[in-house]
Amino acid sequence: NINTQVRDMFDDYKVTENAVKLLIDRVGNDLELIYSEIEKIKIYKINDKLITEEDIINCTTENINIDIFKFVDDIINKNKKEAIKTYKELLKLNEEPIKIIALLSSKFRLMYQASTLAKKGYNEDQISEILSTHKYPVHLAIVAGYKYNPKILLKYLEDLADLDIGIKTGEKDKELSLELFILSL
How high is the pLDDT of residue 65? Predict the structure, then answer.
C-alpha cells in the first residue's frame, strides 16, 4: 500500500494519515518524487519532528498528474502521439526541456542499472543499497527494465546526452530537439 510506504519514509517523524494522503494527492504517486519532497519536509521540521497538513502545503509544490513512467513507456514503445502530448503538457507547465531530458535520462539509467543488477542475481534490497535509491523506485525500474533491451536503453541515454550537450552549447533548439528525439524513435 502506497500510504504505508510513504509513511515509512518519514522515519521517526510524527505524521497523520491525512497529511500522508494530502502529500500523495499533491505530489502524485511517483515514490521517487515523494521521497525527495519528504526529505525537504523533514529538514523543515527537524526541530519538532511533527508534520501537519499545513507543513505539507507549505513545503511541497502541487504536481499535475503526469505519469513519468508512462511518458518513458510511451517513448520506449514508440507511442509518439502520446509522448508528444505529454511533452507538450510538460512545456505548458513551464518545465524546462533540459530538466525533462535529465528526468528521462535518470529513469533510463535506473532501469538499465537495476535490471542489469537483478539479472546478475542481486535482490531489490541489495540493488537499492548499491544504487543509493529507495526500494520502490528500484522495484519499478526492474519491472520496467525487463521489458526492454539494454542496448536500446543505452542508445537512448547516449541520444539524450547528445541532446543535452547540443542544447547547452546552443547548437540545438531546446524545445524542438527533444520533440524531434521523440519523433525519431
Answer: 52
| Cα dihedral 20, 138, 99, 181 sign | negative
- What is the distance between the alpha carbons of residues 35 and 12, in angstroms, rounded to a whole number? 15
Residue 157 C-alpha from the chain's centroid: 15
Q: Please, are residues 110 and 133 in contact by the beta-carbon 8 Å criterion?
A: yes
CB atoms under 10 Å from CB of 3, counted, come to 12
The set of cell numbers assigned to 151 is: 542496448
C-alpha cell at 90: 510538460
Q: What is the DSSP letter of 149?
A: -
Instruction: Scan for cell 525527495, then name that residue.
Output: 36
Q: Which of 52, 60, 55, 51 is nearest to 12 (CA)?
A: 51
Global model pTM greater than 0.85: no
DSSP state of 67: -
In tens, the pLDDT along 69-124 reads: 678 778 877 899 999 988 887 887 777 898 889 888 988 899 999 999 999 999 99
Q: Inform me whether the pLDDT recorded for 166 exceeds 90.
A: yes
User: What's the CA gap between 15 and 32, in Å, rounded?
Assistant: 19
**Strand, helix or coil for residue 59:** helix
163, 178 Cβ separation under 8 angstroms? yes
Q: Which of 41, 48, 44, 47 is nearest to 26 (CA)?
A: 41
